[in-house]
Amino acid sequence: MNWEAVLAPYAQAVEELKIKLKGIRKQYEYESKHSPIEFITGRVKPVKSILEKTELRNIPLDGVEELPDIAGVRVVCPFVDDIYAIVNMIRSRKDLTIAEEKDYITHKKASGYRSYHIIIEYPVETIHGVKMVLAEVQIRTLAMNFWATNEHSLNYKYKGQIPSAIQSRLQRAAEAAFRLDEEMSAIKNEVLEAKRIFHRK
Amino acid sequence: MNWEAVLAPYAQAVEELKIKLKGIRKQYEYESKHSPIEFITGRVKPVKSILEKTELRNIPLDGVEELPDIAGVRVVCPFVDDIYAIVNMIRSRKDLTIAEEKDYITHKKASGYRSYHIIIEYPVETIHGVKMVLAEVQIRTLAMNFWATNEHSLNYKYKGQIPSAIQSRLQRAAEAAFRLDEEMSAIKNEVLEAKRIFHRK
Amino acid sequence: MNWEAVLAPYAQAVEELKIKLKGIRKQYEYESKHSPIEFITGRVKPVKSILEKTELRNIPLDGVEELPDIAGVRVVCPFVDDIYAIVNMIRSRKDLTIAEEKDYITHKKASGYRSYHIIIEYPVETIHGVKMVLAEVQIRTLAMNFWATNEHSLNYKYKGQIPSAIQSRLQRAAEAAFRLDEEMSAIKNEVLEAKRIFHRK
Amino acid sequence: MNWEAVLAPYAQAVEELKIKLKGIRKQYEYESKHSPIEFITGRVKPVKSILEKTELRNIPLDGVEELPDIAGVRVVCPFVDDIYAIVNMIRSRKDLTIAEEKDYITHKKASGYRSYHIIIEYPVETIHGVKMVLAEVQIRTLAMNFWATNEHSLNYKYKGQIPSAIQSRLQRAAEAAFRLDEEMSAIKNEVLEAKRIFHRK
Predict the structure, then answer these.
(1) Which end of chain C is more exposed for a tag (fewer CB within 10 A), N or C?
(2) pLDDT of residue C19
(3) Which domains does chain A have, with CATH numbers?
(4) Quick check: B184 and D143 CB within 8 A?
């Protein structure tokens, strides 16, 4: 299987989405507005992980397109409120269609994981015509991302079976991350209020 | 005037078009096919040049959007035939609309300039909604690009009034570039024929 | 003053240091080792900030080179221990000299700020020969960076005079960030121990 | 063999050299001077080509470091004279050592190939300390590069055995490229003379 050729449209979707979201951040900067985007990362799922997943779910190799997260983009926000600003921005875009939304912010996972996931359908122009690909956009705060990155490493280390002692530590860390976001959100409101008072003068 | 904010959609169009065309080149490579794209460059017209042009044409500053070449992308091809492959690829894309085509390949300019120009309308998602911007795509061979780059420098040096002695030298250079393209085109055909014979066996 | 030309060696130092540190991260990945680098950012101090600082410190404009942070690079680490791994790596490099170190990890600032700063002397090849420039490398964990980014915005908003009510909130946030790092550090040790046990078998 | 890890220092050398040479070009621009650099490209030799070469030359796999062109950087210049400006700039740099120079400009190859090659020793900081790697810098004009790119494709197609009919066509193309460079060089001189006259007034 020529994986480079098969994955090219997904890699292309990731590149285009990254450029598009980075452009959004720059526009906020140029207009001296608070940007709800701190940074953007993206990746194509490694072939090894794709094979593990297709095997696990009994998906034939030519059904790889069903996997919703071969193309993945992550938007990291300064504040919790910013997550919903990004969600609304994505919902209003004309260059993609939303296939599914999962709100792990309001409904956090048992592990402590918090993030907003949107599966989108995104058209990519290829040398064989337009191809519609699925891509997953994950939206989280810096604190959520920090926690999730570490949990991901541990999950990888322990092959999904994190010992319960470590699991409960991870939970405590998740709570600390949550508290950090709460404190920061409160500060954000004060900043905005300070500005509102200033402009009323 | 906040030029960074005004030019942001044009800069965005250039970035997106570059990423999209680079993706096309990669796809040819991944499928082991001859790529009609050698390299891609892009630029936003400098503010100084925009001001010179609006003044020259008596365009008010808020009519800057009429200028078709604020966003500019250049596709450089190995062979002359490749130019038309690119033109067809652009015509078939669903993510842009063609506003105008100028074929300075078949009808070269008096100066010796050769290139294929396409003005496109390209939708950019901004923080204020979708904005349609004009962009100019220039398509040329390496030899045409080499010549045009040098002519551009001389034009800039002499403020558009290249002395006739140098002009005639430039013409001779243009002819040499043209001959180079002709020779290379002939070789391209032989290469393709050699491959056709090989595959018939 | 031609600021682009004056700042070119600093911009160059930032670009080179970023490429060099990104290379270090890749090497850890290629050898399947834990990378002490999560990500790297860099920036040249904006001209406006340079002018404010030279004015404040009564530095003449041609003494701009004395400022140690015109070129700035930030290394963000997953864990606290990783900070010292980076410090040692920088100390052992042959392509730069350390001018000064400030350990705001062991000795955090009153504001709650934590970070390790290294001022380096870095040689840049210019079109006028080698030029030695000063650059500041800031090394912090993700949690420290998250907190510092927000504090920086507030400082900017309040022009260095953050109201005490918000200041005490920031302090609480700094403590939460600190606790997060502590929890994560503990987990890191368990991960390493788990691996050590595994390898003893 | 973990090729990614083995080739990492070479990839690093290419990235650093590209950033360094791009910086040189920017400095000429910022100071409004003619830049002898039009563009820079770089690549690490593909593993397949490395294996073919080690086999051909009977080099054991751990002797891969002897190959002088695993890391390759190409500097493309507008004019022939610019090539020697680049050669002098490289000779004067303190961050590398020259191991060998080959002047295929003055002494073109039988095939018609023209280019200036410099083999350098370049120190790369790795996670195991400093490693000295060999890298090849190729310096050519746009016309030489155009020709060489096409000859390379044909050589690849015909596995080094280009039929003599095509070979003689390539030769004619090489002559046309040479003539183009000659014409352009003459124009360059006139431009410089025009400027000298202007400044004498």
Answers:
(1) C
(2) 98
(3) 3-143 (3.30.460.10)
(4) no
